[in-house]
Amino acid sequence: MTNDRPVTALAPMAGxxxxxxxxxxxxxxxxxxxxxxxxxxxxxxxDRKSNKLMRIAEAERHASVQLFGSEPETLAKAAExxxxxxxxxxxxxxxxxxxxxxxxxxxxxxxxxDIPKAAALTRAxxxxxxxxxxxxxxxxxxxxxxxxxxxxxAMEQSGAAGLCVHGRTxxxxxxxxxxxxxxxxxxxxxxxxxTASGDIDSPEAALRCRNYTGADCFMVGRAAFGNPxxxxxxxxxxxxxxxxxxxxxxxxxxxxKRQILRAAKDKGERVACLEARRHLSWYLRGVTRAAxxxxxxxxxxxxxxxxxxxxxxxxxxxx
Length: 319
Ligand SMILES: Cc1cc2nc3c(=O)[nH]c(=O)nc-3n(C[C@H](O)[C@H](O)[C@H](O)COP(=O)(O)O)c2cc1C
Prior knowledge:
Structural class: alpha/beta
Oligomer: single chain
CATH topology of the largest domain: TIM Barrel
Shape: globular
Bound molecules: flavin mononucleotide
Order of helices and strands: EHEEHHEHEHHEHEHEHEHHHHH
CATH class of the largest domain: Alpha Beta
Number of strands: 9
Strand content: 5-15%
Number of helices: 14
CATH superfamily of the largest domain: Aldolase class I
Number of domains: 2
CATH architecture of the largest domain: Alpha-Beta Barrel
């Protein structure tokens, strides 16, 4: 355990980085974690599902709750609620989500098109809580309106304690190549810590991004699906340590099983097991006969099924 600021972060990814997966990752390395995005309105209306998303695992030592919304009072009130949750060390504001339902409500990346409004939201939240407030945003709305540097400066002036920039525009969604130049420009423009997001899919990519951008922290996104060991590997490389061991298939599936059991405890067996189909498929990436195993995984309905499928895969592989 260290008190240093983490150099590696697990990206917030709605529908993926739930309590159980974040716990598995945080047990492997001293990383920053962020909840899936939580609706500020939902929290203020007492929505139980929104509230549950804010739970933090004991292993998470640098844990942000990520909020989305575009009303200062609602966001400030939601941030106060988040700051009271045990284990929460920062509040992150989502100003990068590209999903039509979110941006059409003026939330997420839509805020990049209205910097004064985004600045007022950040100010309202920073004034409402005593823990650090960070902002996650993109390179810009589209290639004709790249404004991440101006946006970053405005957020810093409005009380943000840190920034995370994803080097793609809203129009790009998750396609194309992440623009490390945009991240480097943001880093040069502000004095607060900057986290780089986009295409950090290997220890080498993280080191390349650090050399290129000078950012302070590196966020692993889609490459972490079913691969918590990658997050630990990236973290070791950034700290100049040897790569940590990656377990064999039995060890990896054991971690997946623990994740599924934890998720079942957190969100109920049915939901956790339906989601386990996706998670297990990711854990099986690169395994010989993965297509066959995925067909078994897709039939999982409950914990018993999940345990049997994992057992059968290991039998098949060893036999
Ligand atoms: C399925 C999925 C869900 C995501 N959900 C969120 C979210 O809730 N909040 C957020 O700030 N970013 C979200 N993101 C964006 C990621 O945090 C990250 O910035 C992006 O995936 C770029 O990193 P990558 O190229 O390494 O995947 C999501 C991305 C994916 C693929």
